[in-house]
Fold:
Amino acid sequence: MPSQERFAKGPIALFECMQQIPCNPCADACPRGAITVKEINDCPSLNEELCNGCGVCMTHCPGLSIFVVDYTYGKDVALVKIPYEFSPLPEAKTVVDALNRQGQCIGTSEVIRVQTSPNKTNIIWLSVPRELAMEVRSIRLRKEEDHES
Amino acid sequence: MRIVNHPILTFPKRDMVTFTLNGQTIEGVAGEPIAAALHAADIKVLRHSHGRHRPRGLFCAIGNCSSCLMTVDKIPNVRVCTEPLRAGMVVETQEGKGKIV
Amino acid sequence: MITTEILVIGAGPAGLMAAIHAAEAGAKVLLVERADRLGGQLIKQTHKFFGSKAEFAGERGMDIAEKLINQSSDISGITIWKNAVVLGIYPDGVVTISHEGAFCTARPKKIIIATGASEKTMAFPNNDLPGIYGAGAVQTLMNVHGVIPAKRILMIGAGNIGVIVAYQLLQAGVEVAGIVEAAPQVGGYRVHAAKLQRHGVPIYTSRTIQAAHGTSCLEGVTIAKLDENWQPVPGSEQYIPVDGLCLAVGLSPLTELLWQANCEMKFAAELGGYVPLRDANMKTTHEDIYVAGDVSGVEEASAAMVEGKLAGLYVASVLGHKKDSFTKEFQTAKSQLSALRSGPASVKICTGLSKVVLEEVG
Structure:
């Protein structure tokens, strides 16, 4: 887990991949060489100084288990980038339900940007309340009738 | 029901042909397995077993299990999960073992 | 009678790799596939693969299939037969094949059997109702034919296949009512389970299916909790209305040809059932028959591809076809396989393999 000091410097990738399985595309994908997977069954290890939170690793991870969090994004809000492989994709500036790791709705989030990827693992940038930055890991698109609430 | 939008796959529009199931006209894609066309039309009962007339449908969808046997153009015991659909095929729900003589 | 050097039976990931590497070394290969298209189970895999770059990690299975299929079509030394079912392997070395309805005979010098595995089913009341599918069947319908298998599906089995197919169901717009797993924990990779959980799909561990219900088609299932002795707990029954049930309860190697050819077989539950004894070069107890992929033990696509490469390279070398790079390539492939199997996720596979891999065979 990055230190408060590192979080204060800018966006950083967080790896929620804690099981030893044979897998290393993240290491090959990082354009800055910030990720190391020494033996193929090792969990990835991140050089926090080299990482700039670009999110390229997110599109390559087969487990969709990498997220980027940026606490410097705003005063009361943080930016969370999630991988997303469902259709339809949300549009930028729309409000979506913010879900935690258990799929529970813990608030709403504004979609800041949707980066489509040629390999179809898209990245969605979400603005979330600061205190939820380590909780929000998925979204649910709101239907028309939800907009009143 | 057929998938229209998929986040990873693209399903291009393809030529449809008609065939009959127990006399009822149904549309399907030329060349797809008969079972896929039936499923797309929400038809899942493909035959009835010979002892207790139990309804049977797809299980493996790849030609291994023999759950999906139907009579096609009077030929019994056709594995519809692998048999390609052709225009005008006469498909019937097979009752029991099918007549082979 | 067709003569060829190497007959490869099955054009899934293992068979394709075997054919490609044998032919690249200079051997003449006949690759036969019973389906009307090559690629085996790879063509349905919409998810990105694990492993390392050498096993196409990070690429979607269906894209890997396309690469291998194109590669095999480009090599002139490979003859490809689709809609070709191998009917038998005889003691005099003749192989009978039904190719697009025509009966053929072949006399290959060596055979690589890469016929894969098929889905197991489970015993419970009404397990034969329409609407109950193997996981692979659901993938075939959705990902190959673009047909929605059901509106609401319950998945039985939280091994890798169960959790991967459940995610693919979500992507196809199907509601996944939950995943039921008899063991107290999920057997598949945790990252797969995490994707489902954050989508709101419940995972019921220590549960089993008691019965399916419906008249002409499936309408619902009853699940029950299991105690530490794997016995259902009375009173714990729960009815779940679904119109689709997906069984991801394991695969069994498709070994009929190996039995018929008198290869020595052994039961290894860890590998899916009866598998052939084989040496480190994938040779069975039959001097001319080799194996690769799930038929030799149910594992992963990455291992299937490397085994195919090993078998292809080795068999070609036995026939006198050896590139200068043979030793290096062969040893690298062996190291790849060891590395894939060295983690805690492969302990079961290694236990199974220790029962069936021999130092010297035949």
Chain C touches chain A through 31 residues (CB under 8 Å). Chain C has a mean pLDDT of 95. The CA atoms of residues 156 and 318 of chain C lie 45 Å apart.
